């Protein structure tokens, strides 16, 4: 560190050559760090030296807090001789951070790492902060307060000698403290001793107390009264005797929480969830105490008549010649409808069968056909939106939409972005889930239509079923085109 720092200061003209020689001589003769010798000999001020060393890109510390356990493992005086102090140890890697004035001179940090047998990382700190940390390490700590206990009663062992140079403190309460706290006597002045005879005698125990209670259970009488009569012995019933707890009615809360409401499942109702009937007006009939509504009305809301359960899944509103059902797991077998798609007579019949088959695995379905470079709406389920609005929707194939992405990549599964490209489609759908599936129908490698499915019954199974449907539709369209030729 001395050579590198001396060369840097000499090249910058911060310290003359004769001052550097004198500082080097003092550092070698007295065994002090070269930076401290520069400041002690007056070759450079502490502020100028710290400003020069602060140009290092290493991390800097404002206050140096040495680790005593690491300092104890070093040779005595090594930190003061190197002007380097270990300040941190990484619990995972074991790297020790060493505070040094000049991180570009790693000799001090490497010397400490050699003795600690650990990797080191030099961090910069001012010379004043390092010297202050070394001073705190050299300063002796305050010796602990020793407590001197008197010998036990009847012991012939003499008390230990009292040291003359130590001041002992006893934090235990004394009789003097108790008397001062009770207010029975003023605090004595310094130099006076308190005799035991000056304390007031303890209160006498009444004779009736001595007769009623054994001596080991004596207690002071309560203030302003007499002792209560003694309690008789408790009679414990024999083992196995049943305990009869008297039944008590719970208090009425006044909010109707005492109504016994059975926890039963609601049966499926055709047409969706049934809206509960309105609660009755309290003025129509007499009501029990604390009930804000009629219990029969509440029972009607909670319980559902199970006498006539629905025969099958609840049908949803349909449009056209196909039937729509809500998707449910496990999905129905699609072998028959796939064969019907492959045997379709014309384009419209095939697309209607595709819509019906897709409706078994998704709640909202739409079909787009390719016309003159646009994707035009063709069919949709009532849950997706208005059919007339869908037929008036045309999206360019080259526009950045999810439908165009499905054409180029073979399929799409994800959300519909709320941007200008998807605005016409979102106006028809009103809303869309985060998993919208779009699969194209291809004929000899060219896309002729797309199937859009939203609110899938199961993302993976529904997508796989839609791929089977569009594959069957592609075979049907290929057959229709060949027959026309």
Decide which structural class fits the backbone.
Answer: alpha+beta
Low-confidence stretches: 165-182, 188-197, 208-213, 253-257, 271-276, 278-295, 297-310, 312-326
Number of strands: 10
> What is the CATH topology assignment of the domain at 335-484?
Beta-Lactamase
Overall pLDDT:
72
The CATH superfamily of the domain at 335-484 is identified as GAF domain
CATH C-level of the domain at 335-484: Alpha Beta
Query: What Rg is obtained from the alpha carbons, in whole angstroms?
Result: 48 Å
Strand % is 5-15%
Number of H- or I-type helical stretches: 17
Please summarize the sheet with the most strands.
6 strands, antiparallel
Quickly give the CATH architecture of the domain at 335-484: 2-Layer Sandwich
Arrangement of strands in the largest sheet:
7-6-5-10-9-8
**Which H/E pattern describes the elements?**
HHHHEHHEEHEHHHHHHEEHEHEHEEH
Helical amount among residues, as a percent range?
A: 25-40%
Ends apart, CA distance between termini: 94 Å
| Shape assignment | elongated
């Amino acid at each position: 560190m001395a050579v590198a720092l001396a060369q840097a200061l000499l090249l910058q003209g911060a310290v003359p050559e004769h001052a550097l020689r004198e500082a080097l001589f003092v550092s070698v003769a007295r065994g002090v760090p070269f930076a401290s010798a520069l400041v002690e000999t007056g070759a450079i001020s502490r502020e100028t030296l710290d400003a020069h060393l602060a140009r290092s890109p290493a991390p800097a510390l404002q206050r140096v807090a040495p680790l005593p356990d690491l300092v104890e493992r070093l040779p005595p005086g090594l930190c003061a001789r190197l002007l380097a102090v270990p300040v941190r140890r990484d619990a995972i890697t074991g790297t020790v951070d060493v505070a040094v004035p000049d991180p570009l001179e790693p000799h001090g940090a490497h010397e400490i790492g050699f003795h600690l047998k650990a990797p080191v990382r030099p961090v910069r700190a001012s010379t004043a902060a390092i010297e202050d940390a070394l001073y705190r390490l050299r300063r002796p700590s305050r010796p602990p307060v020793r407590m001197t206990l008197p010998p036990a009663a009847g012991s012939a062992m003499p008390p230990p000698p009292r040291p003359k140079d130590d001041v002992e403190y006893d934090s235990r309460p004394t009789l003097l403290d108790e008397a001062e706290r009770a207010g029975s006597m003023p605090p004595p002045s310094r130099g006076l001793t308190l005799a035991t005879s000056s304390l007031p005698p303890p209160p006498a125990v009444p004779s009736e107390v001595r007769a009623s209670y054994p001596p080991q259970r004596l207690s002071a009488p309560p203030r302003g009264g007499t002792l209560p009569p003694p309690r008789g012995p408790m009679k414990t019933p024999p083992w196995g005797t049943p305990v009869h707890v008297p039944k008590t009615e719970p208090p009425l809360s006044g909010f109707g929480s005492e109504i016994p409401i059975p926890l039963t499942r609601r049966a499926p109702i055709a047409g969706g969830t049934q809206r509960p009937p309105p609660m009755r007006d309290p003025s129509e009939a007499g009501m029990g105490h604390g009930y804000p509504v009629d219990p029969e009305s509440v029972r009607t809301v909670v319980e559902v008549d199970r006498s006539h359960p629905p025969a099958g899944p609840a049908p949803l509103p349909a449009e056209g010649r196909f039937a729509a059902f809500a998707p449910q797991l496990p999905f129905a077998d699609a072998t028959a409808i796939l064969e019907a798609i492959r045997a379709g007579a014309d384009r419209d019949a095939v697309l209607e069968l595709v819509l019906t088959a897709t409706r078994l695995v998704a709640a909202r379905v739409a079909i787009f056909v390719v016309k003159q470079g646009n994707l035009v709406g063709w069919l949709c389920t009532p849950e997706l939106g208005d059919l007339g609005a869908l037929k008036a929707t045309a999206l360019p194939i080259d526009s950045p939409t999810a439908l165009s992405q499905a054409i180029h990549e073979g399929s799409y599964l994800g959300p519909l972005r709320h941007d200008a490209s998807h605005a016409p489609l979102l106006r028809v759908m009103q809303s869309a889930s985060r998993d919208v599936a779009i699969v194209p129908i291809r004929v000899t490698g060219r896309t002729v239509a797309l199937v859009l499915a939203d609110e899938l019954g199961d993302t993976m199974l529904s997508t796989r079923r839609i791929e089977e449907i569009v594959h069957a539709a592609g075979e049907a369209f290929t057959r229709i085109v060949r027959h026309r030729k």
